[in-house]
Amino acid sequence: MNVSQSQKSANALLSNDLILAIETSCDETSAAVIRGGKHILSNVVSSQIEIHERYGGVVPEIASRKHVESITLIIEQAVQESGYTLKDMAAIAVTQGPGLVGALLVGVVAAKSLSMALDIPLIGTHHIAGHIYANELVHDIVYPCMALVVSGGHTELVLMESEGDFQVVGRTRDDAVGEAYDKVARALHLPYPGGPHIDKLAIEAEESIVLPRAWLEADSFDFSFSGLKSAVLAVINQTKMKGLVLNEGALARGFQESVTEVLVTKALRAVRQFGAKQLLLCGGVAANRGLRAALTARCESERVPLLIPPNSLCTDNAAMIGAAAYLKLKRSEFTDLDMKADPGFSLESWSVGGSNQSTIK
User: Fold this and answer.
1) SS3 letters for the chain?
2) pTM of the predicted structure, to 2 decimals
């Protein structure tokens, strides 16, 4: 924020912990009002899945246009449902990145406009920090902890030694896990988004086609799913060439077993190596039943506390952005109004005390 506010304004912020949060990183337009970083007073989400389904994936230009059409109404609804007014807010939080640049811009412009018009601080917020701190809305996070982030665009292991301190210790080298699910679903001619359909087929299947596991180097916490995707396509093509009927359920189960084994094994190894007291599952793919079951069973056997948000907080929503932004609010770390939407925004740089904030003193 352009921090020329008086000491009186800064003191007022300390007695008010209401955040209006805005999320437009991809194909959900969402606004929420959060109190104290943990209490959801409203969380309105408008999904575009039905629109993008006909194209088999998100079309960035269409997503941006739909955000423009609905952002004002969504914000108004969220504020009204909260029981407060815009003037009651201590800060306006918005997803700064990563995401689709056109979609991000819609939320950023809306947030900047409100910040300027109401003279309320702005908090540019990292999308992945939001997914991680969605857990804070329903659980108490204990540090140090390890977060396994699984979504359409991200697969990462993030160590947090203290609140708001993010260290990425493992990341995907190619396809994110959600992206791999969607590509396999398209190969099987399943609707978009493909993840839930693959999950359903896998759970209901009685057989499994064994597929490779990409472990990479022995000490690596990185992930790779492009080779697994290629192995799935090879099975499909070989089956067609032989004139056989493809057992889609067995293939889906084999694919999901390969994905979950690598994710679960590396996550638990990271927990042990870094001495984490909890494992947090985060992101849209955290709603996957196969992954939840496998991770829950493994954590129970190794006595590792596992935190998973409800499905409604796994997918993109503004409440999670408000939860993460509260880390900045209580430290009076605000964002300048010249903030730009950043599709490649670094999670580690967003850690509390980072360089992209100004502090009211």
Assistant:
1) CCCCCCHHHHHHHHCCCEEEEEECCCCEEEEEEEECCCEEEEEEEEECHHHHHCCCCCCHHHHHHHHHHHHHHHHHHHHHHHCCCHHHCCEEEEEEECCCHHHHHHHHHHHHHHHHHHCCCEEEEEHHHHHHHHHHHCCCCCCCEEEEEECCCCEEEEEECCCCCCEEEEEECCCCHHHHHHHHHHHCCCCCCCHHHHHHHHHHCCCCCCCCCCCCCCCCCCECCHHHHHHHHHHHHHHHHCCCCCCHHHHHHHHHHHHHHHHHHHHHHHHHHHCCCEEEEECHHHHCHHHHHHHHHHHHHHCCCEECCCHHHHCCCHHHHHHHHHHHHCCCEECCCCCCCCCCCCCHHHCCCCCCCEECC
2) 0.91
